[in-house]
Each structure stands twice: as C-alpha cells, then as structure tokens.
C-alpha cells in the first residue's frame, strides 16, 4: 500500500511469455498489493508462465484488441478493491522500477492520473525508439496540445496510473477496442477536468518487445487525428462525440 491506498498493477498481455518474468523482476517491493494479468488470447505460453509466477490471471477466449484488454484490466482491478491502478506492459518496454513515482502522487491526492513519459529527457531515442515513431509522436502531441487545450509531453505512452475515482467516473467502455483507446481515454480525462502528472520514463525497444507495424502505426496516427478533432469539435459544441457524450465534468459525477 501507499498512504493506506491499495495498489493493483494490471498487465495487458499478448504473447508476453518471454518477457513477463524480466518485467516482474524489476518490481519494487512493498508498493504493489496485487498483480493482475489479462491475457488477450495469446498464442504462446503467457498464461502458464503467469500462473507459475503466482499472478492472478484473466484469459480472454478470443482476441479483443489492446483497448478491449485494458477495459477488462480496469473493471477487474476495481472489483479487486484497487484505490490506485497502474498499468505496466509485460513486454519489458517500460520498467516497473519507477512505479513508486507513478502511484505516490495519486495515492497522496496530488494527481488523478500519472503518465510515464518517454519524451521528457532522452529516454525515447536512447532506448531505441525508431526515428519515424519519435517524429510522429512529437508532431501528433504538438497538434493535440493545441486542439485539446492541455499540455503534455506525449499522449502515446502505455505507462499509466489512475485513481479509483477516475476509473469509476470515466466511461472507458465507450472507447475503441483498438490502440486509439489510449488517446480516447486521455481526452475523456482532460475533458472531465481530472489532473494529469508526468514522470520521466526510460524505455526499451528490443526484439522481444511488442511493437505495432508501420501500417498499423499509420492507422493509429489517423485515429489519433480523428480523436483529437472530435474532442475539439465536441468541446466547441459543433458535434457530439460518441466517446465523450457520457463523460461527466468534475462536480457532475454521481
């Protein structure tokens, strides 16, 4: 626990058998109370590896997509009584060594959401992020900060932590089951008025780390542009966004 708050680490997994233990080996002691792995119909022995390591595991009978996996992660973590939920990918791309820095601001009421940013400092390129991904990350983030009206170093990190209150009030089930889920959720968080903090996060791009292809990266980028424009239009009252229409502003949440 941190400040008396139960911390649950969730791991959305797909073919992570070779990296799961390496990821867990970096987990600091006495920070995380429970670990949940949600397997999205992996084709390797991710589930058996998780069970050997004593991790609570939920297995999807069919592949639901990256966003669909996260939905199960957050719903189940809330059922487990989590006060703070931190998402760590089991592909060893993000280190659990900075989990304390991710969850402490939430447990102490400073922020509602924390992001591990690869862009602050030199973590992205030093860790092997391909140049085209770095450039597209910077360009999309610049565009999003202007239209969304917030200021983040990046919107595209997969290292995130949330308060229970946020997860109970943000309608994340309205979001896509694909990779754009992450951006839609951040837009929901910002639109609702929750506060977001960032910490510098080193990252690793290795052969056994998961990474989407160039074609899927392009599709993701187009999805981010649409999500951003929808958020701007919804905020201006020009249209009603499907993923924002049920988002309560702070003070309106039941």
> Low-confidence runs (pLDDT<50, min 5 residues)?
none
Q: What is the mean predicted local confidence, pLDDT?
A: 93
Q: How many β strands by DSSP?
A: 7
Major sheet attributes: 7 strands, mixed
Secondary structure category: alpha/beta
Helix coverage percent: 25-40%
How do the strands of the widest beta sheet line up side by side? 3-2-1-4-6-5-7
Distance between the termini: 27 Å
Total helices: the number is: 9
- Overall morphology: globular
Write down the secondary-structure element order. Answer: EHEHEHEHEHHEHHEH
Rg is 17 Å
Note the beta-strand portion. Answer: 5-15%
What does this 3D model show about the protein?
It is a single chain. The protein is of the alpha/beta class and 254 residues long. Helix content is 39%, strand content 14%. Helix 6 packs parallel to helix 9 (214-236).
Describe the secondary-structure layout.
Elements lengths: L6 E7 L6 H6 L8 E6 L6 H7 L3 E4 L5 H15 L4 E4 L11 H9 L5 E5 L5 H4 L4 H18 L11 E4 H6 L11 H12 L3 E5 L13 H23 L18
Parallel strand pairs: 1-2, 1-4, 2-3, 5-7
Antiparallel strand pairs: 4-6, 5-6
